[in-house]
Backbone:
């Protein structure tokens, strides 16, 4: 694998600089970050998703750690929006989105959204962005009070605006990003010398064990995503809406890659207390995703979803799936030293260059057809810099609980 660099310039590659410049165009004049069109123009008449603003705040927090010009101010802009218009002053927590006029387009309280607010607060706090620590503290408190179900060892999915009714649905996607966010929060508290990171990490370990060592391993690495309130699998959930961006039917290839990586981030922070199954389970998830999801329809690229017999369901190629393959290969290679992962990493990065990187407008195309044309079935435009930024940093930083901690370690922190 590549040698881990020790300077900000080594981490702040030309592509990352270009991505940050492209993403800066998402800054919204009314607060937070908006939706970018394929050409990088801001679609000011589109709703502003809270998770999108949180993701951008996280990205610019990482960039601020690297000394990227203007990044700290952009991260602070995100923090101000998350503590301002996106925050619910009456009931607490964060609305799911704001409309073009600043009204609440969706006032539900979703675990997916709140996980990214925790992540934004963690990265902003680690970077020393004004208001970052206060945002992290409040986001963690809301997560603990409303989403963490200690009896289940998992997070619930969604509440109404006033926190009075919890939805019956339970989902893996929100829990996956909850793992990412709580690991980042624990690392941030460690860096600040405060809080209780050990308790947070023990919760993460419980989630990873149930999801990866339980449901995924039991089904030969075909991870179910959808459950009822008693955590019973709903195998046919959204069979009539297979292209859903957050709750697609069947096996989501990119999520298996993501869980593979998160298992190793968890292993890194548990140290000597890490259970022995974390590494082989991470390998199992990765191998299943690659062997079953890559070019399964005869065209290069990862399909979006598979059915329970490993047949492709949605064959669109999503940029975030390839980004997660890059990240997983990088982390597995760093942990195992197996040169096969370096070969995979080179292959996935070359595929990104051949298909996803947009040399005309910047950023990555978010969705492609199997033949490589730009698709719009699930995603339009380029609203997300989060997955790509992480894919650019993970091969160049040591494995820690979070990417921010990896950046700190690479820089000698």
Residues:
């Amino acid at each position: 694998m590549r040698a881990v660099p020790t300077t900000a310039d080594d981490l702040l590659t030309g592509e990352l600089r270009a991505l940050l410049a492209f993403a800066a165009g998402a800054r919204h004049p009314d607060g937070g970050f908006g939706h970018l069109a394929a050409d990088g123009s801001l679609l000011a008449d589109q709703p502003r998703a809270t998770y999108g603003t949180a993701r951008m705040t996280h990205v610019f927090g990482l960039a601020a750690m690297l000394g990227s010009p203007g990044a700290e101010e952009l991260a602070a802009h995100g923090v101000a929006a998350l503590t301002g218009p996106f925050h619910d002053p009456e009931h607490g927590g964060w609305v799911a989105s704001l409309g073009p006029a600043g009204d609440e387009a969706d006032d539900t309280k979703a675990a997916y959204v709140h996980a990214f607010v925790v992540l934004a607060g963690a990265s902003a706090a680690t970077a020393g962005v004004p208001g970052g620590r206060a945002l992290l503290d409040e986001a963690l408190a809301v997560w603990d009070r409303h989403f963490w179900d200690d009896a289940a060892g998992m997070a619930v999915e969604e509440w109404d605006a006033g926190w009075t009714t919890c939805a019956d649905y339970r989902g893996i996607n929100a829990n996956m990003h909850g793992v990412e966010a709580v690991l980042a929060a624990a690392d941030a508290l460690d860096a600040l010398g405060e809080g209780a990171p050990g308790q947070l990490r023990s919760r993460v370990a419980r989630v990873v064990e149930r999801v990866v060592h339980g449901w995924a391993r039991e089904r030969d690495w075909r991870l179910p995503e959808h459950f009822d309130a008693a955590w019973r699998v709903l195998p046919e959930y959204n069979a009539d809406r297979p292209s859903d961006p957050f709750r697609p039917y069947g096996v989501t290839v990119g999520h298996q890659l993501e869980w593979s990586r998160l298992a190793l981030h968890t292993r890194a922070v548990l140290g000597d207390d890490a259970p022995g199954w974390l590494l082989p389970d991470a390998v199992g998830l990765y191998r299943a995703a690659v062997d079953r999801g890559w070019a399964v329809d005869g065209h290069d690229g990862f399909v979006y979803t598979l059915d329970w017999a490993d047949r492709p369901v949605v064959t669109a190629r999503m940029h975030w799936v390839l980004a997660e393959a890059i990240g997983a290969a990088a982390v597995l290679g760093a942990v195992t030293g197996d040169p096969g992962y370096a070969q995979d990493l080179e292959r996935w990065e070359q595929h990104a260059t051949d298909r996803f990187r947009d040399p005309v407008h910047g950023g990555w195309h978010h969705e492609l057809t199997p033949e490589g044309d730009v698709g719009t079935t699930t995603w339009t435009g380029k609203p997300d810099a989060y997955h790509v930024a992480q894919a650019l940093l993970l091969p160049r930083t040591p494995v820690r609980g979070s990417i921010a901690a990896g950046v700190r370690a690479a820089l000698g922190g």
The domain at 8-410 is CATH 1.50.10.10 (Glycosyltransferase).
